[in-house]
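Internal QA ticket QA-208
Title: Verify multi-chain structure generation after dependency bump
Assignee: T.L.

Test input:
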Amino acid sequence: MAASIGYDQVEIGDELPAQSFALHRLDLVRYAGASGDFNVIHWNERVAKSVGLPDVIAHGMLTMAEAIRVVTDWAGDPAAVTEYGVRFTRPVVVPDDDAGATVEVSARIAEKRDDRTVRVDLTATFNGATVLGRAQAVVALP
Amino acid sequence: MALNPDFIGRSYPPSAPYLVGREKIREFATAIGDENPAYHDVEAAWALGHPDLVAPPTFPIIMTMKAMSVAMFDPELGLDYSRVVHGEQRFVYSRPVFAGDRLVVTTSIDNIRSMAGNDIITTRADVATEAGHAVVTCFAVIVSRDTASPAEEA
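Actual output:
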């Protein structure tokens, strides 16, 4: 498909433009509705704490969806992403306040493959600690 | 309560077709705060050479979670959903998902194991067209926190 960055224009080690994403309780409720994931730990503080969590936590899938924007915004065409995987290593705790939780995402070209795809490794942190492990995307470039 | 190991290796028949709607793609993209025109503006998607709106990379979770819920909410599995967190997720695409697609999901439970007090379920969901053409395979690891019996720890 028509990514705007060409395969020949990228080198291993290139950094993609980093972004940060703020998550508020409202974002969790909206994501619950849009995705159909109504697990109470993502919106009910009482239940979250009763099962040993510090507070309401963001859906891992919401963090995952936010993080890949660093790649899709860079590539131009989101359909250029042919593979995307993460491990959820720490919860993103979202307090009931106006600031919410901020996830910082950076990414770099880790590998250029012979089939004109590149592997992008992502790093997502919250409060200085990584929240996604082995976060990798494969992107097809023209 | 530990999970029922009889579920290991179980496969479920294909789901009823999921019709990927333009408004659902827009709603999902809005929920993840993503204004990429390919998710919202059909002409922008056409300009990229696509037949219709493109779904964001993680969009298939909507249909795979729904298909997987048949197993996850089966009382015989013994899962307490408030103890569930997501361990891993991976999407491997054969082609992008577009508005207008009618997709069926075939799910299976590849493994259940206990580790550090948690029960860990490894699942796979194959998303394909009604005609059987592969679209995306979704691998998920689901963690049930603090539910494994100590005796089962391997």
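Spot checks passed. Chain A has a mean pLDDT of 96.
Status: verified.
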